[in-house]
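sorry for the late reply, my laptop died twice this morning and i had to redo everyting from scratch. anyway the thing you sent over, i finally got around to it. pasting the sequence first so we're on the same page, its 1436 residues, then the predicted structure underneath. double check i copied it right bc i was rushing
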Amino acid sequence: MVSWFEDGDAMYMNFYAPAAGDYSVTATYRSGRLKNNPNEFTWEGTNVESGSVDVYGESGATTTHTVTFTVKVTQAGAGVLKFTATNPKCGGQVDKFEFKKKANVAVEGVTLDQTTATLTAKGQTLQLNANVTPEDASNKKVTFASDKEEVATVDATTGVVTAVANGEAKITATTEDGSKTAVCTVTVDIKDTTQPEDADAPKTWGATPNDEQLWYMKQGTAAFCHFGPNTFNNVEWGENYGTKTPKEIFKLTKKFNAEALVKAVKEAGFSRLILTAKHHDGFCLWSSQYTDYDIASTDYQGDILEEISDACTKYNLDMGCYLSPWDIHEDKYGCFGDNNNKKNNNNTGTFTDYNKLYVAWINEICQAKKADGSYKYGNNNPNRRSDRFVEWWMDGAQGSASNRQTYDWKAILGAIKNNNPHCQVFGTGKAVNGKNGEEDKKLAGTGGIHWIGNESGWASNETWAKINIGEDYETLPKSDGAYIGVSNGVQWSVPEVDTKMLAGWFWRDSAGDDTTKSESELADIYFRTVGRGATLLMNLSPNKNGEVGATQLNRFKELGKNISDTFKTDLTKASGVTATADSTWKNSDKYGAAKVLDTIPEGEVYDNTYWAPAEGKTTGSLEINLGGLKKFDVVSIEEYIQKGQTIAAFTVEYKDLAGQWHDFASGKTISAKRLCRGETVEGTAIRINITEAKDTPKICNVGVYKASKGFSVSSDGSSEAVPSNLKKVSINDATREGTWNFEKDEDGNANGSAWGDTAGLAATFTFTGTKAWVVGTADPNHGMMDVYIDGKKVDSVNTQKSPRKMGAVLYTTPDLEYGTHTIKLARSTKALGISKIYYADGSGIFTMKQSEYELMYGGTTEVEITRTGGTKGQAKVNYVTQSAGAEQGVNYTDLAGSVTFEDGETSKKITLTGLENEKADRMVDGKDFYFTLTSDNASIGTANYAHITLYNANVEKTAERIAAMDLTGYTDESVKALNDAVTAMKALPSDAAKDKIKEAVKKVLDAKNALEEKENVTPTPDPEPEKEFTLPTGDNTLTVEAEDFTMNPLNGDTKEHVHVEASTWASGGKMVNWFENGDSISMNFNAQEAGEYEVTATYRSGRSEGGTPNAFVWEGTNVESGNQDVYGESGATTTHTVTFTVKVTKAGKGVLTFTASSPKCGPQIDKFEFKKKAETPTPSVVAVTGVSLDKTTAKLTEKGQTVELKATVAPANATNKNVSFKTSDANVATVDAKGKVTAVANGTATITVTTEDGSKTATCTVTVEIPKTPDPTPTPDPVPADLLERVNNEIAAAADKKETDYTADSWKNYQKALEAATNAAKDEKATKADLEKVLENLQAAAAKLQKKAPESETPSTDKKPETPSTDSKNPTVGTEAKVGKGIYRVTNAKKKTVVLVKPRKANNTSFNVPKSVKLANGRYKVVGICLLYTSDAADE
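ok and here's the structure:
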């Protein structure tokens, strides 16, 4: 035998063939390989067609086998047959070969798979496949020819037709044996969508997008949907289903909710939806005639691909198909050739070549029809813009090395394009290793879309939408973890970023909705994909119920809304915005800067105008004047890619009011769209600098936007602006402790910044001045920093921020007395990075006193420049007026000058003048300009400008503007002055002279400009949240982020008590943390229905089971109280959810409050989801027909005597038996809700009972006859029971007091009041007035009780008043406690009331009194103020 037939070996034989044709070869062999790892006979040679066949044996190669295959000899005569071996299959042990000439079978006919076809684009291809009959014909060779090659050409061997020009061509296939023929008529109808090349325009450079690619890149977003057996088996790849049946692995029985999914994608503004019709496991989500491994073989009653298609048709949403070429289940996978392996479907199938099966699936999906003749799959809306499938996903996975399929790319791409001519195909890079060798390799990279190289959701800063044909783009270099493309690539290709909403592609128990990406994560993904010239393909994962969960779907909708809200208002489209450039192509307006601001004309799809710099230039600058000061954080730049992508580097700057330019962003490529996002800035202009390009750069659009809240970059204070011209102390000049590592600072200065992460790390800075700003590094891996000023710890600051930012303001000191100070910065936890401190040297910081002024046309006003933070020395400040909507010299007098502040001077005023004009259109209300401060040396604060608005002298309009103002924050004196001026203005007669009107209006404007803000006004916090949320009904769900609750930290402490913090794990990027003892958070709600609500809270907890838990404890208005313990794990590293029931007792407005108390306190909270619980079905209603009383008359003879009336409602099974009682005369007899009648005085009263249902009534006549007594004293008014109870409660509170605890005088007065109250409470004749008086006296005496000093205390002449104790866990009447800025005394322990008795600071003359305060055992209501002052004479 031949043995050891290993990798690289070959054996061959010379032969002589008397005739060409097929030879049957039977090989006798042994093999030690099993089916999953076969040996192989592989042949080639001279005058021999190559081929291969797998062979198997058994462990130990103990049995002899035979295999028969066909070797085709192509020419009679001499030849060579060669068998080769390669890893991993190699050859078996070979005994012999038996050859037998197969009888020639003549060709009887030939057909083509298409008889007509239409091509709509030049260069578009069509694959024609010939079928020769009979199946076993000896010679199946065919050749192809075109009768009009000027219309369409055809490859003679492969049958690939290529469109050339409009017209009709007949493509004929002819058999070599018998010259049998078949014809396909090809119509070429090329619609020219390109604009003719203008000879004077900049030339196109390199590859350009086709219409489908251009549309996708301009839209930017698409949705993915992964659903299938993996969903039900908690796996990502179904590699281990083995012999399980479709029913066992796909368990959906509920109706798949295609409608909700497609509707959400459409409404979010996403351009298409791509469904995983078949993933790597091989399971088909449609009913296929080619396999029983499909949805038709499960218990699901439907076809998910069809249901998605129907929904896409309804909403006219573009559709794509993911059809994995890898197939773990299919036994044909991994081989090609008609002699390989058994057939599928229990030997009833038609394919042994997997490539043919895959092509058949493509045709089945694209050509299957419904009973009514319409297409079954894809977007079939008659108004769709393109093909039924616009994208085809050929995932690059191929399986293990021992079972890899060699794909027939020519056939596969041909089938896709034949059915969908404009369809773009993802994943064609692998065609470099196709079945057809060079033919397939030429197709590599031609699909139109390529993978970005990661699934994390970002494109590179450098992203070229171009690659080369014939190359696997996955071998290209990467930057930022993403393929950068090829700048001079010959093929345009859309860079597509596929990423997922959940932790995995498929919904799994461990990757469910609780792993949904946060709002801030999605924002980052959007700006790093679409914002970098790529497209975003965002995956949604339906759950085991066949629907996308509410959390995931709502977050997806939120993403769509953030996109819409952010780009809704383009600040460059406002009036007054202009554009200029440093050069223009041929100085032609056709290519001028204004073209970046124009809009797309009606009827056109794209912006076909653009700016280009002068000939020969590959750099240039565009400046956009925004027409005034605008706030923005996003700048959008679009390259005119219809003429190629050329730009390789750029920067963006913005100009402030002082005319200074600042960096905003920089980057490399731009392409279809570049979105530059930063922290919010204020600017009057932006400048885009193209610093590198491959050829003439072309910009078609520039936009400036203010991002939605969800898309905004949160600075967390790290980007706090500091005044200009401050002094500086570097980290190099600080006194350092511990080990510091030096690096470049934010300005690029070597060793200008330092960081460390060791115990004892600290840096101390010394400066002489009045204030300092600490600048360093905010970083995700940094921690807490302790701050000491002049040796005293004043604060702890969290320097952990994401993303990392050098040059962040980490801390700002309060205003300090002028002098020499130290500021020590010490590491507390994790790392700390510091670069410098800036400080104010005492010469002052100069700002505008007010930011807004009104100026009258023809009038004047004074603007005030203030000096704070020191007044030492002389300082010069420059000022200038700058136009916004107003015109210099036309609407106002233009100013540019300076003022000098002398030593100690704090304020300067400058007069502004509004100008009148003869032309009315030059004096329009609302025109505006700015007054701005600058200085070469003095420190200018962030409030460095004032905005001045011009108005005409019009009494009515001036009065309307003032009336619309909120004046609550201004001093009474300045408000009075304004109101007096308005009153005087409105009192003018209707025929008042113009000068009088102007004089009156000017006085109003002067008073308005002179409004003084109140100082140190701290309004009492409102215990209710500002927002109001409407609770859901039905199946709806309401999600409320925890940060949207109102935070109520104990004593206002927002550092170590409840507050909102940035968080990467929480939705929206924020969580509620430090929920400690005494804190609460609350939300206003409006409940449409009373009842039970299911509340799901998302949280993290560091408390483990077995120990003390955290807890959700709730109470509120119209809410039943309750609590729920929760646990987590050490370190609070995992996100959890807990569901509990909150009962709303009444429809309408209410307040839900969560509280925290030791030892449980609250966890870290992300959000709450509310859903109304279904009510128990209401039984059929039985109406009330009547009511009766057990008595119709009654007689009472004593005051206070009672009688019980019992009502009987008919019928006995009435649904609503509620009744109410009412008396006709309460002076004679009263009645309570239960029918208890009480005698009051002589007379007759009618007691009426009324049913709630139907208002049925019955009556009882009650006669009261109380015998007269000899006492002539008139009967006093009855004493209310609750009044007597309040007196007795106050008397009972005396038991808690001891005479030894109080001063003699205060105890004597208290005992006197107590005795009077006790006697009155016992006196049956005591009147209501008597009891009210003794109660008032007793409460006042209790409030005035003065505690004695402890006897052991050493007398001291400078002894301060005793500090009341707060240690009592059960305060009693008289207990005093420190809370906030005051001392409070308990006046009623049972009802929890207190009075304020003393401010914490003795010299306080004004202070706020809260509605309630928190003591040790709960919250007490503040019912009054009782301030005690003691003079030398000891008089209170």
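The CA atoms of residues 368 and 1398 lie 86 Å apart.
thats about all i looked at so far, will dig more tmrw
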